[in-house]
Design a protein that fits this description.
The complex is a heterodimer of chains A (about 110) and B (about 110). Chain A has about 110 residues and is mainly β. Chain A has strands spanning about 5, 10-15, 20-25, 30-35, 45-50, 55, 65-70, 75-80, 90-95, 100-105, 105-110. In chain A, a hairpin with a 6-residue loop joins strand 7 (about 65-70) and strand 8 (about 75-80). The relative contact order of chain A is 0.34. Chain B has no helices and eleven strands. Classes of the chains: A mainly beta (about 110), B mainly beta (about 110). The interface of A and B includes residues 91, 100, 105 and 108 of A.
Amino acid sequence: EAEVAQSPRYKITEKSQAVAFWCDPISGHATLYWYRQILGQGPELLVQFQDESVVDDSQLPKDRFSAERLKGVDSTLKIQPAELGDSAMYLCASSDRANEQFFGPGTRLTVL
Amino acid sequence: RKEVEQDPGPFNVPEGATVAFNCTYSNSASQSFFWYRQDCRKEPKLLMSVYSSGNEDGRFTAQLNRASQYISLLIRDSKLSDSATYLCVVSRGATNKLIFGTGTLLAVQP
């Protein structure tokens, strides 16, 4: 069964450092999503791509977060500089025209 | 106030019990409705979509009341393996954006 791949699975960094997360969606899925999930809360959408174009980044803190999907396939989410409050699970999901979103295993970020 | 509200629980129930979760949403423009399941430290997975006519998948029954903006999930004959967090989710807008509730934690006891 096809899966969404993410790396790294775990990341520990110090505040003010830069971090980057990678996501490879299910092959053929045109829509890719990045979510942040803080412990005890539901996932919150950060950015949504349709192919290589951003269609929703209204909740992305653009002063420190950036996301790209240059060839419309895999994607990178970057945080620079990281802050203590960025500690969370970062989930990537993808969907096809049927719209069901399939999530990857996530990257658990700890900022010290 | 959150757009999707759920009782966070935990719900502690014995094996074989019937348990019901409720959820309310505030945006009447919400288009589609789902329940996702999330195991501890794992990613969310779609459990079932929710329709106004109600839908059933084995021991799970979901119901939507658009007038009251209320969604429910009923689990019959609870199993130990049902222990997880159940996320109520709505979608809206041209981009089909998903809005998640905070989740309800279910712990099924032997």
